[in-house]
Design goal:
Blueprint (H helix, E strand, L loop, with lengths): L4 H44 L6 E6 L2 E6 H37 L14 H12 L1
Antiparallel strand pairs: 1-2
Length: about 130
C-alpha cells in the first residue's frame, strides 16, 4: 500500500513542527528556571546580609543601579512570583503540546502526565492526618 509522497511530506512536516514546539517550550522553561534560581540566590544573599538597611547594587541589563535593600527585596519577590506563574503556565502548555505530538505520531497519550502537584495547604492537611 503505497502512500502519496505529498501526504507523507506534509505529515513529517507537521510532526517536526510539533516536536520543535515541544523543544522550544522545554528550553524556555529551563531558561526561566535559571533566572528564578538567580533571583532566589540574590534574595537569600540580601536576607543574610548583616546590614539590613542601606543600599544594594542591582544590575539592569548592562548597567548597575544602587537601590534601597527593602525595595530590591520587594522587586525580587514580585519577579519570583511572576516567574513562578509563567513557568507553571508553560508547563501546562507543554503537556498539551506533548499530547498533540503523540496524537500526530499515532502514539497513546501519556499516563500520569496530567497530574498536578499538591499545594502547601493540602500537604499540611495530609501531614496533620498522618500525625494523628
Amino acid at each position: 500500500m503505497a502512500r502519496d509522497p505529498a501526504f507523507v511530506l506534509r505529515y513529517l512536516a507537521e510532526v517536526e513542527e510539533l516536536a520543535e514546539d515541544v523543544l522550544a517550550a522545554r528550553q524556555q522553561i529551563v531558561d526561566l528556571d535559571v533566572k528564578r534560581n538567580r533571583n532566589r540566590e540574590a534574595l537569600r544573599a540580601l536576607q543574610k546580609d548583616p546590614e539590613p538597611d542601606g543600599k544594594a547594587m542591582v544590575c539592569f541589563g548592562n548597567m548597575f543601579i544602587e537601590l534601597p535593600k527593602g525595595q530590591t527585596k520587594e522587586m525580587l519577590r514580585k519577579d519570583q512570583e511572576h516567574l513562578d506563574e509563567e513557568i507553571n503556565n508553560l508547563r501546562k502548555e507543554l503537556r498539551l503540546k506533548v499530547n498533540r505530538l503523540f496524537e500526530a505520531q499515532g502514539k497513546a497519550e501519556l499516563k500520569g502526565f496530567n497530574l498536578n502537584p499538591m499545594t502547601a495547604e493540602e500537604m499540611k492537611l495530609i501531614n496533620r492526618i498522618l500525625e494523628g
